[in-house]
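Researcher: Re-running this chain for the archive, since the previous output was lost when a drive failed. Same request as before.
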Amino acid sequence: MEVLLPTKGYPKRSVEEMENNWIIRQNQLRSQNDEPVQSFTYIGDTTGKHPSAEGFIKDPHDFQLSKHCLIPNAKMALKKHDYVTALFSITGKWRVYWGKEFNVIDGELELDQWDLISIPENVWFGFENIDNKEGWLFEVKENHEFNQKVENV
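Model: Regenerated structure tokens:
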């Protein structure tokens, strides 16, 4: 049985176009910040915090996808978004903590490889690598306005 790709809303693209505009090769990536945290915004805007960290794929999507690598005991700054954020552990062990007020932790838990947590909107949260080796995780953010304000500390 032959499977046909949709003709409406699916522009034909050459291999060269796909390679140049819609594929991200790990061996070609350069971090958009320095250790102890390496970050790569694959798709979407940067919420205005790091204008130089624009997504590698420029086409509009209904989400933002970033990948982070943290060395042991490194943590991301406490932040709050007015949209949902999911954290998906690729490798390592993570401590994720959250609260309704800045610097007041109401709860925390640990993520192992392939675990996912969804952080509701308007909740302060942070995460840190609690493993003895570098760890990788994906951060997926709900659709939001470009350059929307993010509270980060």
